[in-house]
């Protein structure tokens, strides 16, 4: 069997950020392993998972980092963002507070990462339309004003999960290649 580890042409570090319980860990498990966990399990420390895709015949490995965002030490936050070339900044469309906190998340991202980081604003839990507190239009407007991509996703029913990650990965590829 060939060594999959040795074949990639590019490795992109992508970070997940956003309030606790917005679905960051489930977006990652849905994308990387097609798994969903109905009950919340607290992310302890920092974890990452990888997923590969091919663009223009190049093998790309996305290394996607996930955290509970409760780091008490600035050094950990700095290490989390260091070298990141992409970011998914996530809120929950059924929880207004998580949208109001996006500004703080963006500030942290900008302090700790490069200007050129490819960022997407993600309104997760779009399956909860009956509980919606943030309109699609508000999300789109914020993303536009911050120069970010925008998508609404559902880790529960898989809506736009692959599309969100692959849009970011493809854009990074277009920038670096
Ligand atoms: P994190 O703290 O941001 O990593 O959030 P989790 O991934 O742990 O998810 C928090 C809770 O929201 C869990 O109970 C998940 O099952 C649930 N959840 C995550 N994504 C979705 C989604 O797209 N739709 C719905 N309805 N629930 C979700
Ligand atoms: Mg988590």
Automatic annotation (TrEMBL):
Transmembrane segments: none annotated. GO terms for cellular component: endomembrane system. Keywords: Chloroplast, GTP-binding, Lipoprotein, Membrane, Nucleotide-binding, Plastid, Prenylation. It is a lipid-anchor. Coiled coil: none annotated. It comes from the Eukaryota. GO terms for molecular function: GTP binding; GTPase activity. It is found in: Endomembrane system. Belongs to the small GTPase superfamily. Rab family. This is Uncharacterized protein. The chain holds residues 3 to 179 of 224 of the full protein.
């Amino acid at each position: 069997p060939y060594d999959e580890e040795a074949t990639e042409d590019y490795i992109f570090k992508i970070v997940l950020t956003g309030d606790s319980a917005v679905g960051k860990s489930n977006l990652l498990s849905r994308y990387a392993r097609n798994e969903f966990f109905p009950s919340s399990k607290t992310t302890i420390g920092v974890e990452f998972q990888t997923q590969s895709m091919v663009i223009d015949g190049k093998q790309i490995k996305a290394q996607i980092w996930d955290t509970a965002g409760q780091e008490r030490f600035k050094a950990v936050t700095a290490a989390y963002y260091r070298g990141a070339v992409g970011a998914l900044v996530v809120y929950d469309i059924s929880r207004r507070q998580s949208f109001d906190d996006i500004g703080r998340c963006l500030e942290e991202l900008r302090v700790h990462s490069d200007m050129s980081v490819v960022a997407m604003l993600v309104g997760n839990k779009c399956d909860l339309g009956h509980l919606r507190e943030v309109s699609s239009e508000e999300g789109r407007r914020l993303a536009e004003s911050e120069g970010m991509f925008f998508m609404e996703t559902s880790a529960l029913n898989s809506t736009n999960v692959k599309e969100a990650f692959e849009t970011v990965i493809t854009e990074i590829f277009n920038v670096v290649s």
